[in-house]
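From the shared-data thread, chain only:
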Amino acid sequence: MNTLQQYGCSLIMFFLALAGTAPAQTNDSSVTAEQVNEAFGMPLWADDSLWENNIDDVARRLGARLESEAGAETSYTARPALVLGVRPENVRLTGREGKACAVMIMFANKGDTLGVRPDSSRMPSIEYQKALAEFRKKEQNLSRTIKIQNSLVEDALKNLLGEYSKQRFGEGDKTSEWVKTWTWKSHAILLAEAEGASLSLRIVPLEAARARGKSEKTSDAALKAQLKARVLKRDNGDVIVTEIPMISQGRKGYCVPATWARYLRYMGIQADEYVLANAAQTKKGGGTSASEILAATTALANQNRRSVKKICNQITIPTVSAYINSGLPLMWRMYSIGPFELCDRRADRMGGQSSEEWKAALKPYRKAAKGLKLDPEQRHMCMIIGYNALTGEIATSDSWGLEHAEKWYTVEEVQAVTGGEMYLVAW
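Structure, as tokens:
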């Protein structure tokens, strides 16, 4: 290569770096899988390529539990004692078509680390004051904790793989992050600190890092066909949308970002509940601004040639069925905590009864729905994922784990606790 060609290549790499799209630097490939496992403090790698490993095998090595099975995508969660010398809040393994494809390690953050702010109406005064004092202490220490953990993780990775490079990862202004990047063989290791909010470490294939984590684009026609194929019709009259990824929000008040992340991923758009929570300025202790989350999710949807639409129609079987039949679940603002918690019924709720017999059995519940009282302090967001026109029921899905993936209520119960807003992601 002559001097002019070298100069041209240098300029190209310079401008790529300015744009945040330069290929991640290559670190010492002589480091072995055993050394990486020892540094990380968990047996994540069986060999030099995590991406050739069966996701179930990786989960077994870490003692992880199943979080979600949705079509070709599977996820597991684990909580090792230490990762890179720091206690993590959560480790999520993601697989696609049976192979591992990503790892998310979440360290200190305003959700898991703090939990939900204590509620004086749900505990005795003395117990509440004690819980509130503990919450405030963790809240005051959060920024310092994140800084300390960031330094420990960064030093551990430098000792293992050398210096890092920096790049932008993710889509959209609000839902992308500057990350410190190390590479080892076919893996990119991305450390992201959101000041005062979270510290996370992602492990993704090099190709994903070079593509900045952007979603693969799907045509409208192809997506519509995929969504319709996900609609399941049961003999008892149930019609539900399937293959919606589950995210268990745990003990933090992340129902809004977690449910939006599930919906976006269902639509083929890469989304993470922690990034969405930071973008939407979810409060410490729970509570997400409706306008901020809509701005963040709308921008992310638009990046992928999709749009977020608001629906203000009353929840009825005809209203819901118009979307469910096309494979489109509905984001639903409602009031969940309190008496409504005792109303849900599972998919096998009918037992051996016919739909006509079950409809008759629901009469007392329809009548009791008139007594459900709304508590403005107990707002919640979940998805409407199905309906049964024969029995007059609506199916919902909460971001609390697989046991909450499908729950049924009468239309009257749903109408009694609705927040009056629904949203969907479409074209």
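Residues 1-26 have pLDDT under 50 and may be disordered.
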